[in-house]
Amino acid sequence: MRRRIIGPVATTAALGLVLAGCSSDGDGGTETPGTGETMPAGCEDYAAYGTHDGAEVELYGTISGVEAEQLTESIVPFEDCTGIDVTYNGSDEFETEINIRVEGGNAPDLAIIPQPGLLQRVVGTGEVLPAPEAVEANVDEFWSEDWKKYGTVGETFYASPLMASVKGWVWYSPSEFEAKGYEVPTTWDELMTLTETMAAEGGEGDNYKPWCIGFESGTATGWPGTDWIEDLVLRQQGPDAYDQWIAGELDFTSDEIRQAFESFGEIGTNPEYVNGGLGDAASIVDTAFQEAGLPILEGSCSLHHQASFYEAQWGEGVTVAEDGDVWAFLTPNVNADDPAAVTGGGEFVAAFNDEDATVALQTYLSSDTWANNRVSIGGVISANKGLDPANAGSEIGRASIEILQGEDTIFRFDGSDLMPAEVGSSAFWTGINDYVSGTGLDTVLSDIENAWP
Fold first, then answer.
1. What is the three-state SS of 303-335?
2. Measuring CA to CA, which residue among 79, 78, 71, 63 is closest to residue 114?
């Protein structure tokens, strides 16, 4: 997707520090710090990026469709004020093509990399540059140490966080809960008791089961299942064990990880609990994750585990709110008094050159200005601490932002995204598919563990 801006912007100037001040000239324009150049009126928030009339920057990533259009829209004010022409190119084959482009000497200026593990592999080419000082200053101010760590390889900080998602939401029908007197569970044991009650009481139709689950996602089939395991490891074993697990220091065959699989299995392999309106447990692997929760609207199931971004799958006319057609609660902790523990995902922006225009865009994308602009457009959230939750276009978005910004929230990045590709995006996906299809847990755990390079 390409958008070219030709505007009354002054000639190219070096990028000033993002934290530098700005001033308006007598004609209502904005003077860029230390340059004497003037931006159009209304560009006060962009003065620190300088003017770069005629410069072009390619931004490359996996984002596509409506979300790509919204990303482009969020960059328009930056283009108007700086004179930089930003071209965004999205690809479904990003993970393969980014390596080809880098090795072929055709790297983009900036890349939006969806996984810390992939960032490490791309940094391994030697072509990614450490983040500029202005970018690191933004990240130190607006992001937690954990988020900065995910953009760091070795001791060097390379990539600033961009958007985020909160995983582990359990979607349900508020009207059903009210009609049947169900209460939102606050512990895992309460969730299992609720599941048992739902199974005993039944629902609408002969095919009712408490849970509806879908793992199908093309070549990535299985990732929704790994999200279940990650949520359970973090809640049952705590963040230190979670970190050891994703680093390969805690085996898949350990008692700690086995417990998470067994806890999920109490739901995911129980024919009395799954797969409402969709089939038996084996249907989980063939059910598209985008469609798996929809039987809640028909009363064929009551609960669906999926991230905050699932809000977009409910369709037009469906109200997502605490008193609406569907709402969600976080997968409960083991103990009700434990601090909020959530897993999630996000993207990271890395640079392949240090041209002034490239640095300017990279700095903008790490700022609170961009986060508020993008979230106001709708459809995404961010863990940027300078983001006003009120800018989110939905209640679930605002709730997710507040969780991410919570001082006591324990956040860990999606585990399969942090593991080596041979494990996280291969054996782990395959293993969870095998598990719900009837393969014994000993075999599943050994197969995944044996995939570690």
1. EEECCHHHHHHCCCCCCECCCCCEEEEECCECC
2. 63
What is the identity of the amino acid at 60?
Answer: Y
Task: Judge if the upstream peptide bond of residue 275 is cis by omega within 30 degrees of 0.
Answer: yes
Q: Which two tokens stand for residue 305?
A: 């585990």
pLDDT band at residue 205, thresholds of 50, 70 and 90? low
Nearest to 251 by CA among 428, 413, 38, 66: 428
In the CATH scheme, what is the homologous superfamily, with its name and number, of domain 23-165+345-411? Periplasmic binding protein-like II (3.40.190.10)
Question: Which one is predicted more confidently, 378 or 6?
Answer: 378
The pLDDT value given to residue 365 = 98
E strand map for 73-218: 85-90, 110-113, 152-153, 156-157, 160-166, 169-172
Tokens found for residue 63: 């984002």
> Under a CB-based contact definition with an 8 Å cutoff, are residues 51 and 13 in contact?
yes
Give Cα 124 distance to the centre of its chain.
23
pLDDT for 13 beyond 50? no
Distance CA 360, CA 386 (A): 19
Quick one: pLDDT at residue 206? 72
For domain 169-343+413-449, give its CATH number from 3.90.79.10, 3.40.190.10, 3.40.50.1820, 3.40.50.300.
3.40.190.10
Quick one: residue 438, left, alpha or beta (phi over 0 = left, psi -120 to 50 = alpha)?
Answer: left
Please tell me if the domain spanning 23-165+345-411 has the same topology as the one spanning 169-343+413-449. yes
Tokens encoding 435: 């598990």
What is the rounded (10 degree) CA torsion for 119, 120, 125, 127?
50
Residue (of 424, 407, 372) closest to 163 by Cα position: 372
- Integer Cα distance of 422 and 417 in angstroms: 11
Domain-wise residue ranges, the chain? 23-165+345-411, 169-343+413-449
**Residues 447, 423: Cα–Cα separation, whole Å:** 10
**What one-letter code names the amino acid at 282?**
A
- Write down the pTM of the prediction: 0.81
Structure tokens at 310: 């699932």
